[in-house]
Amino acid sequence: xxxxxxxxxxxxxxxxxxxxxxxxxxxxxxxxxxxxxxxxxxxxxxxxxxxxxxxxxxxxxxxxxxxxxxxxxxxxxxxxxxxxxxxxxxxxxxxxxxxxxxxxxxxxxxxxxxxxxxxxxxxxxxxxxxxxxxxxxxxxxxxxxxxxxxxxxxxxxxxxxxxxxxxxxxxxxxxxxxxxxxxxxxxxxxxxxxxxxxxxxxxxxxxxxxxxxxxxxxx
Length: 219
Known about the structure:
By secondary structure, the protein is α+β, with helices and mostly antiparallel strands. It is 35% helix and 20% strand.
């Protein structure tokens, strides 16, 4: 992936220049290791292949074959597991490298996409609540609850959504190495926002998902 892939952006991570009066408060990208573990489940995939290899060895040995020969026969499963984990790790790296989260005084923007770069633009008036979920690897997730009838496509936005929330999708800033800073910036923006309070009825609008064509990668 070329470092020039997003050079057409007027501001890094944003599809357009910030309007007058809007300030950038925070910007960051997910950790590829966090994406690999929690979005692509590399540990579970590795454990699955280890289990398959162990099962194969036990089954072959039950027929009277020696341990060394049984283990040799399971080599292909081990190699297949290593290849699967490597592919998932590479995908996680590509996802993290193509993603940039931005919090401004007016909105949250998620820019992502390996093959087709896209932007999800969430004005703060669509954000009803936010949670900070810390993980033992030092990263954190910041899922956003949108006002009712605001829509973001789950599969279009994956993996930048909270898992299993299909019907009321929660966009999520995922795997943040500096989750505390992102949460403080968002809380500051929401506190200073002139958006309609969450308890009051709001007009039905959709959070915009804007596809943007990717430029050709160069060597």
